[in-house]
Design a protein that fits this description.
CATH architecture of one domain: 3-Layer(aba) Sandwich
Strand order of the largest sheet: 9-8-11-10-12-13-14
Distance between the termini: 38 Å
Number of helices: 24
Bound molecules: coenzyme A
Number of strands: 30
CATH class of one domain: Alpha Beta
Structural class: alpha/beta
CATH topology of one domain: Rossmann fold
CATH superfamily of one domain: Succinyl-CoA synthetase domains
Oligomer: single chain
Shape: flat
Length: about 700
């Protein structure tokens, strides 16, 4: 059995065969050869076709074994019924990588053959890209082995795409948008090589500065996350995922035969791994371009320089949306900008140098911001006026941008106006200067830059080891399973919660009045009394529940009252006694759940709890394990977080106690594979230092 090759040999292939190369223009086997030749592949190219002949000046080999030298990569573009034969030939030849263009495998239900091909390839030391792909490119070797556009611009963006058509469209868009590529990889059915394998190579590829992924569904989510967590500390990763809407998710599930995971989980775990999710292709491209070229900011202070108040306000709104911190030291701003701002302008941020500002004033204002170390990044806005010509505007932008690049300070522009401005934007982009016709687009790019910088600066998460008595939990589960149940009864759940260190209300069963008096001392007043009878299911309907019992007298009265009502409700009911339960004051109710996600494995959820969870949907997810800081971050991540942090003079709540529950349930679902779902709702959160208490727990088993 040959050892599996290093992915480096795919991206740095010294020799490449195209099996199914065609001399007929219009055929995929022709287009691929044409692109390889056109973009100037630096390695050896071997077209293969039983008919022989030549294509674009290259001799066509009748079969692979006729090729004189070694073949690192064989692109397969023969009809599906010939693919396996071609793969066998590749094994004989010692090929390392097989990008299989051909469709007709798992995406149409032909899973078995696909599986067999992959198993055979791997057994023979070969790795497969696809099948069902449009090919791949690698700028290092000037290779464009895809049936998409040619003349690809070289640069720092790597694209990994699951969608074929969209991937080809993205390649086309890179040429129009002047985005330079380090590679484009179509992964199609990702039957063997997947995003994680490619990311591991791109992580250390010096030419790749930003990675853009288009994902429809994730299969080996845990591995992908662990690779992403590493990669995002070295370079930005941007993702576009379809299936955000529920209809979109259905379409994605049937596309490429892959399963689109629940979108809210995807969104949360990508964020956790430091991946930035773009809303649209345009946004993704803008981010990638900016992140590839711009220097990282040295601090959080952003300054907006504008010649119009309106766009300044828009940019302020956008800054809030995209998480920019506008520099707010009024005295310092005045000191920096008053020499370059007219009387009727404003030195507050946004700095308004007014509509009369021309080339000189704009340059001066941008230079003032550049030279002051208190300002770390600048968004420059310009509304078309008669004071500037498109040429002087262009010159000013170019000059300022170069100075900023040299100084290592990020700067971008948004310019708004008519035909001349639109033309200027096209020209300025040619110079690789970040310029946008829309204020929000510009600010969203700076926001992405800050998001990335903040993530890269975070310390690596510290995962606490939590000790659970797993054998005791498994014993409880085994009994439930022996009973034929796939859920735990309340007292069994309580055993499990005890092991996780999650407090539930104290309770005890009293079988007589005297015992009730004795046990009430242990449970403590105020308490709740509930009838204990298998024959009475709806306790409240039977008058079987009494709240607010504050003393022994009240306790004895409640005992009698419940007995009388229950006898009246069901004369033959067998009453075992009364359950005495600590009465918990319902303050802030939250929920913590844990489950195994189909794509990402064990995940944990936190949110606002109680009976309206489904309506409020104020919940956040994380993939496990999480650190204590991340668990606390989950609390800060819900919309209603202020309720827990202390609102209207209330003291802050016990957020550490909530984090303990998150960590406890997380440890439980990771350690006990028999559990499919755990839900603790509500969890009442007391004031800081006074703990939390879980009122209801549901544990479901496989
Ligand atoms: N070895 C080498 N060449 C072979 C071969 C073999 N074992 N068997 C056939 N060929 C040659 C054929 O002779 C033909 O060459 P020709 O043009 O000189 O006649 C060439 O391979 C292609 O075969 P052909 O039967 O003409 O098929 P095709 O070009 O119409 O389609 C595919 C082949 C792979 C493109 C097609 O099956 C397919 O899968 N298309 C979808 C691709 C796709 O969309 N992928 C996903 C993108 S996101």
């Amino acid at each position: 059995m040959r050892e599996l090759p290093n992915v480096k040999d795919l991206f740095e292939a010294r020799s490449l065969a195209v099996i199914g190369a065609s001399a007929t223009p219009g055929k995929i086997g022709y287009s691929i050869v044409k692109n390889i030749v056109n973009d100037g592949y630096t390695g050896k190219l071997y077209p293969v076709n039983p008919k022989g002949g030549e294509v674009l000046g290259f001799p066509i080999y009748k079969c692979l074994k006729d090729i004189p030298g070694e073949v690192d990569v064989a692109v397969i573009t023969v009809p599906s019924n010939f693919v396996f034969d071609a793969v066998r030939e590749c094994a004989e030849k010692g090929v390392k990588f097989l990008p299989i263009i051909t469709s007709g495998f798992s995406e149409i239900g032909n899973k078995e053959e696909e599986k067999q091909i992959i198993a055979f390839a791997r057994e023979h030391g070969m790795r497969v890209l696809g099948p069902n792909i449009f090919g791949y490119s690698s700028s290092k070797i000037s290779l464009n082995a895809a049936f998409g556009p040619n003349n690809l611009r070289k640069g720092g963006v790597a694209i990994i795409t699951q969608s074929g058509a969209l991937g080809i469209a993205m390649m086309g868009k890179t040429t129009v948008e002047c985005v330079g590529l380090s590679c484009v990889v179509s992964i199609g059915n990702k039957a063997d090589l997947d995003e994680a394998d490619l990311l591991e190579y791109l992580e250390n590829d010096p030419e790749t500065r930003v990675i853009l992924m288009y994902i429809e569904g994730v299969q080996k989510g845990q591995r992908l996350l662990s690779v992403l967590e590493r990669v995002t500390r070295k370079k930005p990763v941007v993702v576009i995922k379809s299936g955000r809407s529920s209809r979109g998710a259905m379409a994605a599930a049937s596309h490429t035969g892959s399963l689109a995971g629940a979108d809210n989980v995807f969104e949360a775990v990508m964020k956790q791994a430091g991946v930035m999710r773009a809303e649209s292709l345009d946004e993704a491209f803008a981010w990638c371009k900016f992140l590839t070229a711009a220097p990282a900011p040295k601090g959080e202070n952003t300054c907006i320089v504008t010649n119009g108040g309106g766009v300044g306000v828009m940019a302020t709104d956008a800054s809030e949306k995209y998480g920019l911190n506008l520099y707010d030291d009024q005295a310092k701003l005045k000191e920096i900008f008053s020499p370059v701002t007219p009387e009727f302008g404003s030195t507050k941020n946004p700095v308004d140098i007014t509509g009369q500002a021309g080339y000189k004033e704009y340059s001066q204002a941008l230079t003032a911001a550049l030279e002051n170390p208190a300002i770390h990044s600048v968004v420059a806005l310009y509304c078309e006026t008669a004071v500037f010509t498109a040429e002087t505007l262009q010159a000013m932008m170019k000059e300022s941008y170069e100075k900023y690049q040299k100084a290592g300070k990020p700067l971008l522009f948004s310019i708004i106006g008519g035909e001349k401005i639109e033309k200027a934007i096209v020209n300025i982009r040619e110079d690789q200067i970040p310029v946008f016709p829309d204020v929000y687009q510009a600010v969203s790019c700076m926001g992405a830059m800050y998001n990335y910088s903040r993530h890269a600066a975070l310390p690596a998460p510290v995962i606490e080891a939590r000790k659970l008595n797993v054998p005791r939990i498994k014993e409880t589960i085994a009994k439930a399973k022996a009973d034929g149940r796939t859920f735990l009864l309340p007292w069994e759940s309580k055993v499990v919660m005890d092991e996780c260190g999650i407090r539930m209300p104290r309770n005890a069963i009293a079988r007589s009045h005297d015992e009730a008096i004795k046990l009430a001392k242990e449970v403590g007043y105020p308490l709740v009394m509930k009838v204990a009878s298998k024959d009475i299911i709806h306790k409240s309907d039977a008058g079987g529940v009494k709240l607010n019992i504050n003393d022994d007298a009240g306790l004895l009265k409640a005992y009698e009252d419940i007995l009388t009502s229950c006898k009246k409700y069901k004369a033959d009911a067998k009453i075992d006694g009364m359950e005495l339960c600590e009465q918990v004051k319902l303050t802030t109710e939250t929920i913590v759940g844990a489950r195994r996600d189909a794509s990402f494995g064990p995940t944990v959820m936190f949110g606002l709890g109680g009976i309206y969870v489904e309506v409020l949907k104020d919940v956040v997810f994380r993939s496990l394990p999480v650190s204590r800081a991340e668990a606390k971050g989950m609390v800060a991540g819900i919309r209603a977080h202020k309720l827990l942090e202390g609102v209207r003079g209330e003291k802050p709540k016990d957020i550490d106690g909530v984090a303990d529950v998150i960590l406890g349930l997380g440890a439980l679902i990771q350690a006990v594979e028999e559990i499919s779902d755990i839900e603790v709702n509500p969890i009442v959160v007391n004031e800081a230092g006074k703990g939390v208490i879980a009122l209801d727990v549901r544990i479901l088993l496989y």
